[in-house]
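Aim 2, interim progress: modelling of the iron/sulfur cluster-bound target.
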Amino acid sequence: MKLFIKTFGCQMNEYDSERIAAVFEERGYFLTENVESADFAVINTCSVREKPYHKVESELGRLKKIKLKNPNFKIAVCGCVAQQDGEKFLERFDYVDLVFGTSAISRLHSLIDLVEQGERICDTNEGEDELTIPVFSRSKQVSAFVTIMKGCDNFCSYCIVPYVRGREKSRKPSEILDEIKYLVDNGVKEVTLLGQNVNSYGKGLDEKINFPQLLYLVNDINGLERIRFVTSHPKDFDDELIFAMRDLHKVCEYLHLPLQAGSNKILKLMNRKYTYEEYKEKVFKAKELIPSLALSSDFIVGFPGEEDDDFEQTLKAISEIKYESIFAFKYSPRPKTKASSFDDNVSDEEKSRRLNELLNLQSKITEKINKSYVGKIQEVLIEGKSKKDENQFSGRNRQNKVVNILSNHKLNIGDIVKVEIVEAKKNSLLAKVLEYVGR
Ligand code: SAH
Ligand code: SF4
Ligand code: F3S
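Predicted structure of the complex, ligand included:
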């Protein structure tokens, strides 16, 4: 039996897809990248903006054609759109067999049982998932995601995530550590700890633990080389975390701290609970204590009420902070959110114009920062090798930038090497190997 999985959205969904694949594997399924040859297809969906939401429909259209040829082919929809629309999927698409929400993976075995017997079902129950995730088999990789908490309690006014991922809940530290040890035993060198707001990790657990303390425990795992995390909410980003990042040598010098907008008026309407001045103070302190720190951020343009002057303040913020990279999106209203009742008064044309202006400014900053790496010695974790040229490898430095490497000796995936950056490209760096550090 063969399983095809297509994943949209964030790293949380990628992690869930690995968990889903493990359930199918236990039942004897193998993963395939060729949907035409699959017996079961799972679409893991994202609802954060209108665009990914609509991708689900086009993906389903493609699967329908396969089902017409092969009536035994089963189709499942899961993830955030499934959680949002639930039963509606079964009603609207009569060829969909299974809909399961973001808390249903722990019940997936019995759901597949029913589908294999020919039933059509929807499970979007919340709350029953205690977020106990036993160690599950993972595909071979050097860098892996590990979910440390689910849900979000922040209710930023534009955001659907609290409605489709439910309330915040932390995983037990012992479970997280067991999972990382298992991954390291299987070749993983780098983990990225996932949560919508990792800064509130630990709330509600019997044990007294917070996120910086968790970082200390993870840092102690033998054989693990690098630790990353996303996402940190600026309102909760504090000195204790900055000190942990500075003092723990496995924690990489990379921080994704989404600002969203530079104008305090817009930040207030977004319910972000910080001002630009507060944000700037924290970021500058982090940069001061961790000089090689790379920053990245998310921005929304064209939020309801965003005037030219507000947008100018976002541009000013980008110039002041000097991010290595950013993700920027045009605002789109999402069901149930507070902002969906605001007047979406910036035209799509204007949103596009602002998005372009912002991205143009950022690409100049990225180019400048990339050039500043030339001549520097960097540590790179090898993650891939070129199929065409056996002397060419690729990986990322500690600042999460892609580095392509030319090497005369053979390198292996999972190796850590010291390189000298010889050239800066638009979105990556080119380097030559100086020294082999180890595996
Ligand atoms: N928990 C993370 C990320 C959440 S979603 C955080 O707090 O940063 C990822 C990004 O999508 C957000 O940071 C935001 O920039 C963007 N986003 C969320 N809702 C959006 C909407 N309705 N319209 C446009 N962009 C949105
Ligand atoms: Fe959405 Fe805000 Fe929660 Fe991030 S912190 S997931 S943007 S509500
Ligand atoms: Fe999308 Fe759900 Fe992640 S809405 S961004 S897949 S939490």
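Residues 143-372 form a domain with the pyruvate-formate lyase- activating enzyme fold (CATH 3.80.30.20). Residues 152, 154-156, 159, 161-162, 196-197, 233 surround iron/sulfur cluster (ligand 2) (CB under 6 Å).
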